[in-house]
Amino acid sequence: MSEPSDKQASAQYYLACGSEDCEAVSQLYCKNCHRPLCEQCKDEHLKSPDTKNHTIIVYLPCKHQICMKKRKYNPTKNFDVILFCLKCYTKENHEDDICDDFKEIYADKYALWQSKMSKINTYFLPTTRSLKTDIENDATEIKKIMKSSRASMMEEAKSLKSLVDYVTSKDIDYTYDLERFLLGMLKLQEATYDDYITYLEKMNGEFKKYLSSFDKRLLLSETLKLRTIPETTRPVLPVFIAGQFFNNDVNKLLGRVGVPTKKAEKRKIKPIEEISRHMKSGERQLDQSTEKNNSKQTLSLSSTFTKVRQYELPVHNASHVSVDKSGILWVNCSGCCGRLVSIDLEGNLLKTINTSSACGNGGFFAVMRCTNLIYTDGDEIFRLEPHHIPKITEFIKTGDWIPICLHSSHINGDILVGMYKDRKAKVTRYTTTGKEIQSIQRSDRGQIYDYPHYIAENINGDICTSDIGKCAVEVVNRSGQHRFSYMGFGPCFSPYGICTDVLGHILVCNMRRHSVDLLDQDGEYLTSTSRQGIKTSCSLCVDDENNLYVGQHDTNIMIVYKYLQ
Length: 565
Fold this sequence. Notes:
This protein is an alpha+beta fold. The protein has a domain at 321-494: TolB, C-terminal domain (Neuraminidase), CATH 2.120.10.30. The protein contains seven helices and 29 strands. The protein has helices spanning 6-9, 39-47, 86-90, 102-211, 216-220, 247-253, 275-298, and strands at residues 28-30, 35-37, 56-58, 301-312, 318-323, 329-333, 339-343, 349-354, 365-367, 373-377, 380-385, 391-397, 402-408, 415-421, 424-430, 436-440, 442-443, 446-447, 452-457, 463-467, 472-476, 482-486, 495-500, 506-510, 515-519, 525-528, 537-542, 547-552, 557-564. The strands form eight sheets. It has a four-stranded antiparallel β-sheet with strand order 4-29-28-27, with no helix packed on it. A four-stranded antiparallel β-sheet has the order 5-6-7-8, with no helix packed on it. The protein is elongated, with a radius of gyration of 45 Å.
């Protein structure tokens, strides 16, 4: 007889079929071979030549009986078990005492322990195994973090070594320059004394000539006057001043791994009464996640860009565009002193905001996951909250750095800001509350950015910037390590608007060619919209339905395309 399942074991009056490899519920009983049978096994039982004459009856379920041991000398018979009350056995008269039904007690106890076993199988064992799996996941995560930390340490060490090599090279070049200067000064002093020696030799010759013969001029001439010896200064000799540095000094320059001092959290154990509700909720979430992943996997790049809609905007030269979850479209006009407008699905003007952000050029605004709008104005970032009465509040102050482009992460809601100051540029990450948590500026090759005027984040966490100063798309990973640069496909590349999609594609506008270049997440060129008839594109974004919005130069028409199928 096969082992019953958890569900079967939890039933008080369940009897499994006695046939091998059958877990069906028994409703019949063979009187001849004393074996419970299900409906299907009954037919097979009666077809067998050895059992075709057996009598099959309907099984009447009852409470679990006390197990009977087999006789030693006659194993086909059970022991006769007689249950009695000890008082009845020792006393003749026992009318006042009540005798217990031991079979009833045994059945009740059996049902109680069966319930305990059911809880072990349905709650305690799965929950404990889940906690063990949680520990294994923590161990895997720790290994992953430490591996990433070691890689970051090596990258920092390489960057520091490159910086040390650069500074040392500059200092060595200075020693050569100083040496040439000092030797040149000594050379001039040497030439001065050479001239003076020549002068003295000449005067000595003339004096000898006067003395060798009687010459009246010698008597009449005044005492011979000689020029004084020229004075020169001894150069101050250079001295090597050794640097003073210790392990702690180097440690301060490099990052290190530490454990926060916060109190460790206890692992959460689900209450037993909530186990069934959590299981159902988890199944629903898993189904939704699977369905979502399957829908993504079924998407692929179409061979053509199909026009599905067209908007007539209240502004020309849409240099940046963004759409929120409700379909509200935000767009600005380059050269209009940062005029920012929103329109609805029908193209109706909803709101206008005037800013002074770089005359409206670049991706200076973004829509957050909570549908708040953020935009730059001078050296500050403001937030527009879509209440019944819209409210504009100060959000982030960037100090001396001028913010030029924004992006709100679709992964965790972080704010990515491209900014510049004194011919330097960087990308800074803020939390949704405006706290700075990361700054990306340099790699082992030097400055990453020149003038990042558009920015986006890919599904793998890569930060993609459109840098007009470098005429390139610069991509770094989530940790800020440089991954690749895309310089365009063709002789002319002037990157403007940039965005990503659910498949990890990077889409960037090329103003020189009036097209959109489409790359995979590793920077490999896939296709360009110049082959699809899209002209004068300078801004773009992708909504939740995978529609591509393309803002155009020298017109107020915005076109929506389908490019995934």
